[in-house]
What we know:
globular
Amino acid sequence: MVFLPLSLVLAVLALIIRLTSKGPAFFKQRRIGRYRNEFLIYKFRTMYVDAPSDMPTHLLSNAASHITPVGRFIRKYSLDELPQIINILRGEMSFIGPRPALWNQFDLADERDRYHANDVMPGITGWAQVTGRDELPIPVKAERDGYYARNISFLLDVKILFMTFFNVLAAKGVREGASGEGRK
């Protein structure tokens, strides 16, 4: 029932991306999953094809110059995350859990080990996402991911889903680039 409308949204977004910039509609990137196992995450491509691919966007000195005009809208409303449904179906991710770190974000992965946050399935959204997202320093992000790992429950997941919905609508916590470009 949900798959038909979702498939239509995915197809329309993919078409818009292909028509407005060179390159594929989808972007694959190595990420760290449960127990620090690596997997390829799927996202809609929101940046030009020559943009750095293994660096968190919030660390780029001029992130806005790498993001396509359509990509700005897609990122603002976190629509770039929708293809991660594939990762969920493959058993690599869940809807709720710590956001999977890039394969080379050793500082974040090491800090998460301290809180056993790498022992749970990564998610499309999570406690650290809804309580600060890009604005959180790594130790705080890891501690909040650990809080989730220690307190997993249906009620916490429902709370995170509701907070995600409202945060996405408000584009809350999104920081594009090291200079803090974007919305806070």
